[in-house]
Every structure is written in C-alpha cells, then in structure tokens.
Amino acid sequence: MRKTLIAGNWKMHGNVASIESLVNGIKSQLDSSWQSDILVCPPSIYVDRTVQLIKGSSIKVGGQNLSQQEQGAFTGEISGDMLADLGAEYVLVGHSERRSLYHESNELVAEKFAKALEKGLTPVLCVGETLEQRENDTTMDVVKGQIDAVIDFYQDKTAGLEKLGQGVIAYEPVWAIGTGVTASPEQAQEVHAAIRHYLAEMNTGVAEEIQILYGGSMKAANAEELLAQNDIDGGLIGGASLKADEFIAICKIAG
C-alpha cells in the first residue's frame, strides 16, 4: 500500500520571520492520526532553520535543487552532502522551472537524481508537458523521455529501474503551474495511470510501489477529487503551501 505524500515547494519565497510563522502554523495543526507523510521544501538558505523548527514533529524537509557535482569551484551551487548535512531528507530534481528557466536537460536532471540517491536523499523527479506539447498529443512522449533519462543513466536497465523506484515522481503539467488552471482529476489520473502502466511494462514492483504526486495548482478546493484518483499518491504543492491553513487543509484531506 503506497503512502500519500503531501509536499510543499516554497520556491523563492520567505524570510526568517515568515518561515517561522509558517512552520509553527503547520505544526500547531498537525494531527497524529494522519497516515500521510508531510514534506516542506524551503529555499536552500533556510533549510537549516526549517529543520530546527520542525523538530518534534513528523514533518520532513527537502531541498528544491542540488548540484550534480560532488564539491569544488561551483559558485552558488549546493551539494547533496550539504543538504544532507543540514538534515534534509528529500530534494526536488527537474522541476519545470529548472528545466525551462535554467535549461536543465533530461540528462542533467538524471545526473542530479543519481547524485541525490548517492547522498542518501530521496529525489522527487518532476516530469510534465507544456501546453503546446499537450495540444500536440505528445504528453507521454515527453514524460517517458524524462523518466527514461533516469533509467538510462545507469546503463543497466534493471539497475536503473530499481534506482528510479527509490525516488518519487511528481507529474506537473507545466500549463497548470502557477496559472490557477488545474488539470481535471480525470486528466491527471490519465497521465498518472499511463506513467504507472509504462513502468509496469518494465518492472511491476516499481510501478506498484513508487509514489506519483500531482503537481499542478493543487489546493484545498480541488485536493479531495485529485487525491481520490487511484494513481495519485499525493501532491507537490506550490502557492497553497505558503499558507499554513491552506496547506494543512490539504494534509487533512489526505489524512
């Protein structure tokens, strides 16, 4: 039975005061009966502070990005070791904003995925199509390419699938991120089911066990319908994760 994961991506928002208020607001409303995992991904410079603030709670902390490099003269980068050293347990890789704004290729994202695993972090592999790609009916071609890059990085397909299975997949239709437009529950389920079917053709164990999150403008108003879908195992929440009450409302729905 796959656990539900509700993850908040705070993107480039917040300061010491607002993050303290947000974390305390979330912590104060947690219910010990909930079975779902809760994850927050602050900007890298606030990972340490967030880890300190969530102590004593079930909340986990993740990074928003990491370098594929081990260490060295890479000004401005943050390594997997650094994130792990601060207490992070997860890290996002290949978020659509990293792919589009910073031109991260499928191959680079695969390197980052591998580096995260190497450093003991659980990578959340973000995949998804643009509006143009959806209209051209190439959604699954795009998504398969993004997944295949991770599998192929390991050269041995069996090993690659096993490594993929140690992470999380977040399907984020690019056209529904920060736009207020959400894929319908049926549209989201269709892609989630197609991803799981694609993986099942190669490894049924990985397909059945891997968490696939929905990451396109999920909020309290639509979370129940989305999370009720068979192949949606949680959400990667953007704007709604910056408001404690809204984020907790989604967590409560996940239960």
From TrEMBL:
<dbReference type="InterPro" id="IPR035990">
    <property type="entry name" value="TIM_sf"/>
</dbReference>
<feature type="binding site">
    <location>
        <position position="178"/>
    </location>
    <ligand>
        <name>substrate</name>
    </ligand>
</feature>
<comment type="function">
    <text>Involved in the gluconeogenesis. Catalyzes stereospecifically the conversion of dihydroxyacetone phosphate (DHAP) to D-glyceraldehyde-3-phosphate (G3P).</text>
</comment>
<dbReference type="InterPro" id="IPR013785">
    <property type="entry name" value="Aldolase_TIM"/>
</dbReference>
<comment type="pathway">
    <text>Carbohydrate metabolism; erythritol degradation.</text>
</comment>
<feature type="active site" description="Electrophile">
    <location>
        <position position="95"/>
    </location>
</feature>
<feature type="active site" description="Proton acceptor">
    <location>
        <position position="172"/>
    </location>
</feature>
<feature type="binding site">
    <location>
        <begin position="238"/>
        <end position="239"/>
    </location>
    <ligand>
        <name>substrate</name>
    </ligand>
</feature>
<protein>
    <recommendedName>
        <fullName>Triosephosphate isomerase</fullName>
        <ecNumber>5.3.1.1</ecNumber>
    </recommendedName>
</protein>
<dbReference type="GO" id="GO:0016853">
    <property type="term" value="F:isomerase activity"/>
</dbReference>
<dbReference type="Pfam" id="PF00121">
    <property type="entry name" value="TIM"/>
</dbReference>
<keyword id="KW-0413">Isomerase</keyword>
<comment type="similarity">
    <text>Belongs to the triosephosphate isomerase family.</text>
</comment>
<keyword id="KW-0324">Glycolysis</keyword>
<dbReference type="InterPro" id="IPR000652">
    <property type="entry name" value="Triosephosphate_isomerase"/>
</dbReference>
<keyword id="KW-0963">Cytoplasm</keyword>
<dbReference type="InterPro" id="IPR020861">
    <property type="entry name" value="Triosephosphate_isomerase_AS"/>
</dbReference>
<comment type="subunit">
    <text>Homodimer.</text>
</comment>
<dbReference type="InterPro" id="IPR022896">
    <property type="entry name" value="TrioseP_Isoase_bac/euk"/>
</dbReference>
<comment type="pathway">
    <text>Carbohydrate degradation; glycolysis; D-glyceraldehyde 3-phosphate from glycerone phosphate: step 1/1.</text>
</comment>
<feature type="binding site">
    <location>
        <begin position="9"/>
        <end position="11"/>
    </location>
    <ligand>
        <name>substrate</name>
    </ligand>
</feature>
<keyword id="KW-0312">Gluconeogenesis</keyword>
<feature type="binding site">
    <location>
        <position position="217"/>
    </location>
    <ligand>
        <name>substrate</name>
    </ligand>
</feature>
